[in-house]
Design goal:
By secondary structure, the chain is of the alpha+beta class. The chain is built from 2 helices and 4 strands, in the order E-H-E-E-H-E. The chain has a single domain, classed as Alpha-Beta Plaits, CATH 3.30.70. The N and C termini lie close together (8 Å). The structure holds iron/sulfur cluster.
Length: 66
């Protein structure tokens, strides 16, 4: 899986960091989220899925790759 962020939608709420701190970081005063791992291991899928689900602006997309 690969993570895509729609940076026009991201409003740095930080929900993603709360749900998946190994993958997302929202630095103070940043204009957009930082993705630490763009292609996370399957073990991180529950956290990444929750982050995408609860992101208030639905800025996180999970792309499935073969
Ligand atoms: S939860 Fe969504 S809007 Fe908030 S920082 Fe993460 S990607 Fe951006």
């Amino acid at each position: 899986m690969r993570i895509e962020i729609d940076r026009d939608l991201c409003q740095v709420h930080g929900v993603c960091e709360s749900e998946a701190p190994d993958v997302f970081v929202v630095p103070k005063r940043a204009e957009t989220v930082t993705v630490l791992i763009e292609q996370p291991d399957e073990a991180l899928r529950p956290q990444v899925t929750a982050a995408a689900k609860y992101c208030p602006t639905r800025a996180i997309r999970i792309i499935e790759e073969d």
